[in-house]
Amino acid sequence: MSRTVAIVEDEPAIRANYAEALRRHGYAVQPHASRAEAQAAFALKLPDLVIIDVGLGDEPEGGFDLCRELRARSATLPILFLTARDSDFDVISGLRLGADDYLSKDTSLPQLTARIHALFRRLDSLAAPQARESVYRLRALTLELERMRVCWNEAEVALTVTEFWMVHAMVRYPGHVKSRDQLMREAQVVVDDATITSHIKRIRRKFQALDATFDEIDTVHGAGYRWRA
């Protein structure tokens, strides 16, 4: 059975363009022009993944409000922002509300579909029986590659897909500096430096929420980031 992707976007041409592209990839698509329309549909049944614009009609932050409502209903529903509003402040706001990813509208359709595939792959791996898999262990950290799962002191860290791949890039080669370009390649996103910085800050905060003494990620000024050796 095909997965259902809901698109909440107030611009008809953009909505139609994304819907057509995703249908070509085999997804069932539910397009919604407003937050109210989406809410009515989601009250009956949640889709398998939701793509949301931040500004919806006369609600400049309607997408943020919808994300908050959806995350309260489901901790695992993949939520992806796709918006022209890609300032550092907006990205951080979206991620704080529990979005799994935040992409700019100039993101290519192949990048968007790659991100959707990655979100579904993580859902599938978490639901599947645990099999033999690649596991990285470093001090209090455990990273399970196939399940895209990270634990610190045996407590799961609720990372988005983008954050997971950034942690994976650093943990695979502890002590090696990963440039922002390398982190972007690993996470399959194209964003500016400020957005990479936002992701790293958020990753640190998630670990610090479990352990106030967490200090494993070094910023190497002018070069990038590394997981301590």
Structural account:
It is a single chain. By secondary structure, the chain is α/β, with parallel strands linked by helices. It has 2 domains: 4-126, Rossmann fold (3-Layer(aba) Sandwich), CATH 3.40.50; 131-227, Winged helix-like DNA-binding domain superfamily/Winged helix DNA-binding domain (Arc Repressor Mutant, subunit A, Orthogonal Bundle). The protein is built from 8 helices and 11 strands. It has helices at 12-24, 35-44, 62-73, 88-96, 109-127, 161-172, 180-187, 193-210; strands at residues 4-8, 28-32, 49-52, 79-83, 101-104, 135-138, 141-144, 149-152, 155-157, 217-220, 224-227. The strands form 3 sheets. It has a 5-stranded parallel beta sheet, sandwiched between helices. The longest helix is centred in the middle third of the chain and has 19 residues, at 109-127.
Give a quick precis of the structure.
The chain is an alpha/beta fold and 229 residues long. It contains 8 helices and 11 strands.
From the 3D coordinates, which CATH architecture of the largest domain would you assign? Answer: 3-Layer(aba) Sandwich
Unreliable sequence segments: none
The arrangement of helices and strands along the chain is EHEHEHEHEHEEEEHHHEE
Q: How would the global form be characterised?
A: globular
Query: How far is the first residue's CA from the last residue's CA?
Result: 45 Å
Helical/strand content category:
alpha/beta
CA gyration radius, whole angstroms:
18 Å
Largest sheet: 5 strands, parallel
Find the CATH topology of the largest domain. Answer: Rossmann fold
Percent strand: 15-25%
Strand order of the largest sheet: 2-1-3-4-5
Give the rounded overall mean pLDDT: 84
- Summarize the amount of helix as a percent range: 40-55%
CATH class of the largest domain: Alpha Beta
**How many domains is the backbone divided into?**
2
Question: What's the β-strand tally?
Answer: 11
